[in-house]
UniProtKB/TrEMBL annotation:
Region annotation (Disordered) ranges: 102-123
PANTHER family xref list: PEBP (PHOSPHATIDYLETHANOLAMINE-BINDING PROTEIN) FAMILY PROTEIN, UNCHARACTERIZED PROTEIN YBCL-RELATED
UniProt name for this protein: YbhB/YbcL family Raf kinase inhibitor-like protein
Keyword Transferase (UniProt): no
Keywords assigned: Protein kinase inhibitor
Matching NCBIfam families: YbhB/YbcL family Raf kinase inhibitor-like protein (TIGR00481)
GO molecular-function terms, A-Z: protein kinase inhibitor activity
Domain of life per record: Bacteria
Length: 194
């Protein structure tokens, strides 16, 4: 358990303790958080709100949630997104190659470049906390002062090494999700369609 997480990170994430050191704390500092009004939002949830099951392992056709951001401060060359489980430390998504301007990723949209998640593949890792256990998923958007030369499929560790010392602004958006039972549909529950 990461007991020495910086107070500014705890405040940015919201919801109490953080179980590990987030990318935000590894590559940025309090001065760049929200710099120049840089902000990350979603039409699907508010900061600290609940993640809809359509973005989790509960639903069969689940996809990544929609995200939107304001323009980064001048001098940014690229935007990088990292989504992590604040409570368990799993990396759920690494995305880079986003243009340094106001923008968005639509629900389920394939980003320009992605790296490996905690399961070793390059896609949105569907949140799947244990039954009755709530986790927080922290979306961290970084504006950086140089374009990354990482190849798609790079690891989170490689991404962190390339971000260190180059973050000019950061924005954070947190969603909560509690583990549910996957409900099986019974054929008898479906109405006949003629």
């Amino acid at each position: 358990m990461a007991s020495d997480v910086a107070p500014w990170v705890l405040n940015a994430v919201g919801g109490g303790r953080v179980g590990h050191t987030l990318t935000l704390e590894k590559v940025a500092d309090e001065r760049v958080l929200g710099r120049g009004g840089f902000a990350l939002t979603s039409a699907a949830f508010r900061h600290g709100g609940e993640l809809d099951p359509s973005f989790t392992a509960i639903e069969e056709d689940a996809v990544a949630p929609p995200l939107e951001w304001t323009p980064p401060p001048p001098g940014a060359q690229e935007l990088v997104l990292v989504a992590e489980d604040a409570d368990k430390g799993h990396v759920h998504w690494t995305v880079w190659g986003l243009p340094p301007q106001k923008g968005k990723l639509m629900e389920g949209e394939t980003p320009p470049r992605t790296g490996k998640n905690a399961h070793g593949n390059s896609e949105w890792l569907l949140p799947d906390p244990p039954l009755g256990e709530e986790h927080r998923y922290v979306f961290q958007l970084f504006a950086i002062d140089l374009p990354l030369t990482l190849m798609p499929g790079a690891t989170h560790e490689e991404l962190v090494r390339n971000l260190d010392g180059h973050v000019t602004a950061a924005a954070v958006l947190t969603a909560r999700f509690e583990g549910h039972e996957v409900e099986e549909l019974d054929v008898e529950d479906l109405d006949d369609v003629d």
